Amino acid sequence: MNILSIETSCDETAVSVVEALGDFPTAKYEILGNALFSQIETHREYGGVFPTLAKREHAATLVPMLEKALTEADLPHTGNPVMTQSQKEEVQKILEREPGLADQLLTFFESYDTPDIGLIAVTAGPGLEPALWVGVNFAKALAQMWNVPVIAVNHMEGHVLASVFDGQHIAQLSFPVLSLLVSGGHTEFIKMDSWKKYEKVGQTRDDAVGEAFDKVARLLGLPYPGGPEISRLAEYAREKALPNYAKLPRPMLDSGDLDMSFSGLKTAVRYAIAEKELTEDETAALARDFEDATVDVLIKKTNAAIDQYNIQSLILGGGVSANKYLREKLKAFCLLEHPDLTLHLPDTKLSTDNSIMIALAGHAHASEALTPQEAESSIRAEGNRSITQESSKS
Ligand code: KG4
Ligand code: ZN
After folding, report:
1. Partner residues linked to 357 by β-bridges
2. Which residues line ligand 1 (CB under 6 A)?
């Protein structure tokens, strides 16, 4: 089965075509086409992601991404469909809030006949709701035109699967599994006793880790997104062995649960800067102090979770899993403290948002897919969609 997947939850517009041979989780996958456009340049001048701007960019970029992914995939076609007037009106109705996108899509349908796609997977949340809606409605319109079922995918479940995907297969896991998900919007511990049974056992009470990286970067005068910038400076500070600039707290280490907090850490960075003009080395040292504190908290909390639930496999997922220092420290920690545990890190290309992970999550839930008509009336973008919602369905 060929899966067309769509991701528009934040500032990446992504479409892929992934072939799945067999059933989840033992299927063999092949990435046939993959198109991703990052809106980072657009949002950079605002210092963060602007939901209405993100939505507009998704609407302008989805058809080009679809074309790119389909062209790359070069799928067999099932004959040139004649678009009826009522199909045209259907697409216009589904995309009534995005008339520009509707026009682009109708033009696309005129020259592209129906490709061999068996399932459309689309991110329905969590994420920025206006951005999510564009992808969801786009998926609904494609489903109508091609008469293909649709599955609404949880973005965080996508991150979990991205971390256990080697480009062809999903890794065999030993349960119970713990996922540490760290992204721009989320920081949570998810326990799995079997595939698709998700239980949230801890989370941040305030800022997500990625959000903290981005906010601290802004305090340090670094561009958006802050994660990679802080990481780069911190690495420089370690290479030069620069002295500590500030002694930063490790919030909630003794809270007795698996919850975390990062906004106090960010405030501590603000106090450390005060009104001062930091030199380049001081900025780098402070970036490293912040990264040290964050990684320290994440690893100590992970250690507590591993002990508490007798965890056999550990997954690190979400955009912050691109952080080199976190990856290295977590690897070293596992080798030293939990040599029998298997650690799963995503390929760095799949760490941040992408649509391949959405195809994988869609395939995991393929049996719950809806007909185009059901999809149109019932799939909704949900900004706060929780990964634990996915557990009850299968
Ligand atoms: O998963 P993701 O791409 O989007 C969301 O679902 O939020 O995560 C984006 C977040 C941003 O906050 C970004 O600063 C952070 O991931 N990030 C990093 C790194 N690369 C991306 N944080 C720390 N170090 C990095 N190398
Ligand atoms: Zn993400």
Report:
1. none
2. 10, 183-185, 210-211, 213-214, 225-228, 231, 318-320, 322-323, 352-353
